[in-house]
Structure formats: structure tokens, C-alpha cells
Specification:
six-stranded parallel beta sheet, four-stranded antiparallel beta sheet, about 230 residues, single chain, about 25% strand, 10 strands, alpha/beta, elongated
Length: about 230
């Protein structure tokens, strides 16, 4: 895929680095010549110096052939203008960073397919790390409406030695949650489990759930006895 990233700040550079590692072709636009030089020499992407909301610069950067565009400029207003232009040029996937919530709806109306609020996600991540220290990692999707958490199964856990089918049929298992990944041991690959998969002590699971169910699902999965209703 050819992905155009507009904005070579910390977020843009980190995103470009990851996409290059995944084998994508990446183009970057930034008005800072030093940032463009760094992107070319250190990351190996095509970098175009100039304004990301200039049609001349966008066309030079190949926006017409871009499969996706990430608007990570320093201003919500600039990102909004960029999303509008990307939509005009037919980019199918348009992602935008959001700083102020007032811009969320205008960005959607302009054609952004994904809107990422860096402030909200950072705060949410820190709060979750404080509230749920037993969670190894947590990811947020759909503006925080879905959480995916990584949990270890302790030796004395209530769910150790039980299959996913047995767990799902347990009346105390929080409805609206789903075990989507299973790693039997740290040196083994993550797998997609099925109903017959048995959770071993010392294993790791990935669980998709809603924010309001974080505490119940953690208590259920890590408790040493059947949780109370």
C-alpha cells in the first residue's frame, strides 16, 4: 500500500517507522526541511517539503495514488482541511488526529474514516494503568468504546483448567466480553482459540470487552473462586 502521512512530528515519524517495517511504501509531507531530511535519511521514506494543505504539494506527493492518508498536523483546523482535500482526491482510508473534541463531527462529515484523539487515549491509558495494574497491556478501539486487554492466568485462577466453552456458559462471565487470543506459554505463538481451548495456568489471554466491564472481567478471569453475582 502507498500511505501518505502529513505531519512529520513525533506521531507522524513513529507511524512512518512502523509502516515501513510492515512493508508499506510511505510518503511524508512537512514544512520543516529538517524533519523531511530526517524522514528520508533515517526512516527511508519519500519526504516532500511544503504545506500539506497545498494542492500542488499533495499532487507532487502522489495523493491520487494513495491508498490511505494520515492527517497528523499540529492543528485540528489544518487536519480538517486536509481530510476534505483527501476525500476530494479519492483517498479511501483517511485517518486524522484529534486535539479538540469540537472538531470530531466536522472531521467525520468531511470524510475521515478514523479519528484518533491522542489526548483521550493517553489519559485513558494512564488511568487504566493505575486502576488495573494486573493488566499487562490494553488497546482502545472505536474511540474507547471497546477495550482489548492482555491478562495472565494465575495458577489458582478460577478459569485455569476450564475450556472457553465452559467459561462462556458460566452465568458469571460478563456478557459482551469475548476471549479473542490465547498464548499457552510466553515462548509460543499467539493463537485464535475456539470453544475446546483449555486455559492453562501461566498462559495469557486477549479479551475484548466494554469499558464498563473491565473490573468484572478482570475479577472473573483472575479470581481464585467463582465470582459473586
Amino acid at each position: 500500500m502507498y500511505i501518505l502521512i502529513c505531519g512529520a512530528g513525533l506521531v507522524g515519524i513513529s507511524l512512518a517507522q512502523k509502516l515501513v517495517e510492515l512493508g508499506h511504501t510511505v510518503g511524508m509531507i512537512d514544512s520543516d526541511p529538517n524533519a523531511c531530511r530526517y524522514a528520508r535519511e533515517q526512516i527511508g521514506v519519500m519526504a516532500f517539503e511544503g504545506s500539506a494543505v497545498s494542492t500542488d504539494v499533495l499532487l507532487e506527493a502522489g495523493i491520487r495514488k494513495a491508498n490511505a492518508l494520515a492527517a497528523v498536523l499540529r492543528s485540528d483546523a489544518l487536519n480538517l482541511a486536509l481530510v476534505t482535500l483527501a476525500k476530494h482526491y479519492g483517498v479511501s482510508q483517511i485517518l486524522s488526529r484529534l486535539r479538540h473534541p469540537d472538531f470530531a463531527q466536522p472531521l467525520r462529515l468531511s470524510g475521515a474514516s478514523h479519528i484518533i484523539s491522542t489526548v483521550d487515549l493517553s489519559v485513558s491509558t494512564m488511568v487504566n494503568a493505575i486502576e488495573y495494574p494486573q493488566v499487562e497491556s490494553m488497546m482502545h478501539f472505536e474511540q474507547g468504546q471497546i477495550e482489548v486487554l492482555k491478562l495472565s492466568i494465575a495458577d489458582n485462577s478460577y478459569v485455569a483448567g476450564r475450556t472457553l466453552a465452559q467459561i462462556a456458559q458460566d452465568g458469571k462471565f460478563p456478557k459482551g466480553s469475548l476471549i479473542i487470543g490465547y498464548q499457552p506459554h510466553p515462548n509460543e505463538d499467539l493463537m485464535i482459540p475456539n470453544g475446546s481451548t483449555m486455559l492453562e495456568s501461566g498462559s495469557t489471554v486477549l479479551i475484548a470487552t466494554k469499558p464498563g466491564l473491565l473490573r468484572p472481567i478482570i475479577d472473573f478471569m483472575q479470581g481464585s473462586e467463582s465470582p459473586k453475582k
